[in-house]
Write a structure and sequence with these properties.
This protein is α/β, with parallel strands linked by helices. The chain has a single domain, classed as Rossmann fold. Helices cover about 50% and strands about 15% of the residues. The protein is built from seven helices and five strands. A five-stranded parallel beta sheet has the order 3-2-1-4-5, with helices on both faces. Strand 4, helix 7 and strand 5 form a beta-alpha-beta unit. The longest helix is centred in the middle third of the chain and has 13 residues. It is globular and about 35 Å long. It starts with a strand and ends with a strand. About 35% of the residues are buried.
């Protein structure tokens, strides 16, 4: 399975593995391709830098290195990902999440999330 972790699951994979639930099995299964988007690294970096109360306990740099050390593939943001955001219905307003949906759709990935609003986008989303 080709899996794109949403930002929460990406963070939990390096800070709070006990929160992963069934997603931990997906990550542990070496047959699966586990991907973290540059979008998530960007979101982590911003929240950490501004000291947002919901910020993860790691910087963008630390998160990036942890993801790479675990062996996650880092998906860059490409022009066609950014342009595809305009094709999405206005279900979710968060620009980070909208870009993750666009990437999942364009790259044939299943976006793993707990966000029920994102599940309304259909096929590219796997709700856990």
């Amino acid at each position: 399975m080709n899996v794109l972790l949403d930002t929460h699951f990406a963070i939990w994979s390096i800070t709070e593995r006990e929160r992963l639930g069934a997603v931990e099995e997906l990550i542990e299964d070496r047959a699966n391709r586990i991907v973290v988007s540059t979008v998530s690294v960007w979101e982590i970096a911003i929240k950490f830098a501004i000291g947002k109360s919901s910020a993860p306990g790691v910087s963008g740099w630390d998160a990036l290195h942890e993801f790479e050390d675990i062996g996650f593939e880092i998906l860059p943001v490409k022009g066609h990902h950014a342009a595809a955001v305009a094709d999405l219905p206005a279900i979710h307003r968060d620009p980070f999440d909208r870009l993750l949906i666009a990437q999942a759709t364009r790259e044939g990935l299943s976006l793993v999330t707990r966000d029920k609003l994102l599940a309304q986008y259909g096929k590219p989303v796997r709700l856990t």
